[in-house]
Amino acid sequence: MTGYAIVLASGELERITAASIIGSVAAAMDIPVAVFVTMDGLRAFERETVENRDFDGGAIAQAMVTAEDVQVPLFTEQLAQAKEIGPLELYACTMVMDLLGTTLDDYVDVFDGELGVAGFLERAEGKEVIFV
Amino acid sequence: MTGYAIVLASGELERITAASIIGSVAAAMDIPVAVFVTMDGLRAFERETVENRDFDGGAIAQAMVTAEDVQVPLFTEQLAQAKEIGPLELYACTMVMDLLGTTLDDYVDVFDGELGVAGFLERAEGKEVIFV
Amino acid sequence: MTGYAIVLASGELERITAASIIGSVAAAMDIPVAVFVTMDGLRAFERETVENRDFDGGAIAQAMVTAEDVQVPLFTEQLAQAKEIGPLELYACTMVMDLLGTTLDDYVDVFDGELGVAGFLERAEGKEVIFV
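ok -> structure tokens follow
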């Protein structure tokens, strides 16, 4: 195992946050992480969604957003920080962007680029795949 | 790693499609793929569900179904094609079929057979497990 | 691969049961399993939730609860049995417990302790990670 390849396909804040924490902690431990954001996961990274905190999710997501004592930064900040600390890369799914008619400019500024599934599987080779 | 072992437990069209694309692309790259369809995932393969396109899912699933430019074939067609091209096998979960009182005849004709969890874990040995 | 590291982040009975069966079957095959329960998954292990069978889930979850012929024990019983038979360990997520203001006493008595994400990733090293 030479790292984690995370496929982030869920739009639920709880799952996105779990993926973001796992990726960030791994990167801080100097473990290479490649995150491929696709399907409903990609919608959560849209600028408008993030600005309005318009995420899907339930009670724990609410607790995260309103918590004062426990600081859980939003996944976008967490991933941006992780990229400065360790070997973490983020890619947006080309197919879903084509479907939605979006470009990287429509998403918060954390992506290293866009990839197709074949391109991601190549980067995932030898890595532990985590489908969220 | 000698392939992917995909546990398809979700009934959401976005997640099923993501799993189907990953499996198909891997098979096309000559990577062995074993897909184990269980829980809500199995319901999505029922003949009636597929005929009526009666899938769970949100905005991206809708975009997929209505898209004219971007051709995303339905997961059942995609998996059928993948089986002709590369080493992809599909198994239905015996336990859930027992629970629902169904047989393989109730599902679209893409399965290589049915398996219990122990049987699937044996096939998953040495493979990268992806739980969808 | 020296075992499975299961991240149980979903609160849906179907997914929890699938994870519990995979973990139990693996442990019975003498494969080491570490389960990390977090996010909505942790809520499903609250004493009150379990006593009232107040789980999220759909038709298959219902069938499981009401089935008379097919015996699918509740995931809590299944995991408790698995721990007696094979090398399966369960950990509750410290961060989510802090967020919810809960302690291990609030959960059914199947946990071996609590862990942070870094601690879990250390235990996951060399294991096949399954994110549910």
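Chain C has a mean pLDDT of 93.
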